[in-house]
Amino acid sequence: MDSDVTETHRTVEAVWRIESGRVIAGLTRIVRDVGLAEDLAQDALVAALEQWPTQGVPRNAGAWLMATAKHRAVDRIRRDQNLQRKYAQLARDLETAEEDGTAAVDDAVDDHVGDDLLRLIFIACHPVLTTPARVALTLRMVGGLTTREIARAFLVTESTVAQRIVRAKRTLADARVPFELPPPAELDARLASVLEVVYLIFNEGYAATSGDRWTRPELCEDAVRLGRVLARLAPTEPEVHGLVALLEIQSSRMRARSGPGGEPVLLLDQDRSRWDRVLIDRGLAALGRAEALLAAEGAAPGPYALQAAIAACHARARTPEETDWASIATLYGHLAALTGSPVVELNRAVALAMASGPAAGLAVVDRLVGDPALAGYHLLPGVRGDLLGRLGRHAEARAELLRAADLTENERERALLRERADAAGRAAEAGAEPEREPEREATTRRR
């Protein structure tokens, strides 16, 4: 394959990543079938891969993909006699639209794209689907990722991802899920499902559950992009802006979270000059929008706005010593009261230890030991080991850090925990004085 063709294929892939959600959403509105819409969009992608290397990339690539997919829809309708009656009017409408040319198609797409994308996001994140299915379907249909990319990101086989997507489409079809926004009475619950999926995608990128990579930045980027789309489509929802604020601010640290060899660098050890100030400013602006909407409604912040406020406390501190740990502990207290999550309470313990000393944090952590919701959660012994080390109880700290290392499935994090356990062991042998340990960055991602 020569360089020009290779470059064109890269262009096709980039266009597809950006435009696929729009195209699938527009087609779903027309054919009222998510699976058929994706098939038609994939046909258009294949056509682009075949034609663009020789004919050149069209000026409006998204409109070209949409027009080509509509041509494929007409062809399928003409071939499928069993669906002819059902789609007879649709075929006539599509043929009429195509006679108007690409510009007319583009206008039609632009007229509906906002509503169509929002509907597609709500379908992909429908509560009738399992969480893994929602994540896979959202990344495939809205995020534009391939099955291989999703499988690589979550360390599962391509066949597993493909089966999840196929089952998800079948489930949506069997449940007769309409291509429409949920009624007002269901909107809040459904929106919560959408936000959770984007949040889960980001967290898997920010701190990978397993494998040999500490972070997966590409997943964070996809989640941030989905969040920004959602904020444009639902501009009056405070929690949408709260989630975007959280993702933008957390993303700002990505370059500083890993060392030259990919090893983890925890929060208090990070070079804050490497934090992305543009992303921080964007996140703070999104948080401001969330807070303004909440003030106008006279409402209390939700979980994403609270987490964004916590992230903002870190972002505003130019050095670790400037961090307002008392405010962070208070915000985690509000979040714990709202969610009832023991993982949030673990985060509060970390902040409390930084604000009031390790003994105060350890008292909270000790109350969490034995909580069934944290069974197997490696950050519980990880945080406890850090706090014990700061109190000079190095032998106990070593045991806890080794237990945390055994529980984690991420190889980079396991290596870090074992290094710290070794350091605690050496301190125990030497009878060293207690030292401040870096914050463990426990997250609320699996609360």
From TrEMBL:
Domain DUF6596: residue ranges: 190-290
GO biological process: DNA-templated transcription initiation
Region described as Disordered: spans on this chain: 414-447
A GO MF term: DNA binding
Entry keywords, A to Z: Sigma factor, Transcription, Transcription regulation
Domain annotation RNA polymerase sigma-70 region: ranges: 22-81
Biased composition (Basic and acidic residues): 414-423, 433-447
Gene3D superfamilies: 1.10.1740.10, Winged helix-like DNA-binding domain superfamily/Winged helix DNA-binding domain (1.10.10.10)
Span of domain RNA polymerase sigma factor 70 region 4 type: 121-172
Family statement drawn from the similarity comment of this UniProt entry: Belongs to the sigma-70 factor family. ECF subfamily.
NCBIfam families tied to this protein: sigma70-ECF
Protein name according to UniProt: Sigma-70 family RNA polymerase sigma factor
Species: Georgenia thermotolerans
Species classification: Bacteria, Bacillati, Actinomycetota, Actinomycetes, Micrococcales
